[in-house]
Amino acid sequence: MTHRHLPAALLLALAALTGLSACQSTPTQESTGQYMDDTATTTKVKAAIFNEPTLKSAEINVETFKGVVQLSGFVSSQADIATAVRVAQDVAGVRSVRNDMRLK
Known about the structure:
Blueprint: H1 6-21, H2 32-50, E1 60-65, E2 68-75, H3 78-89, E3 96-103
Parallel strand pairs: 2-3
Antiparallel strand pairs: 1-2
């Protein structure tokens, strides 16, 4: 490689490394794969809550970050909170459940 092409090669290598690091996760940001997995987990938890006849699914919000599901919203009883947490824990891909639901 001639000295004339060295800066272009270094620039290309730097661009490639920057692109690869953008796909990695950090403590506060998911990788692309983790984001897709969490989106699927959120969808599964929402469906499980919707299919639970004792729960009003419109009152419960679901978010997932790195496999940790956060449930929030306002529900009618402590039994609804316990049921929603149990239903979410039973979904494949859920590492843990954070309960931020409140009683009306």
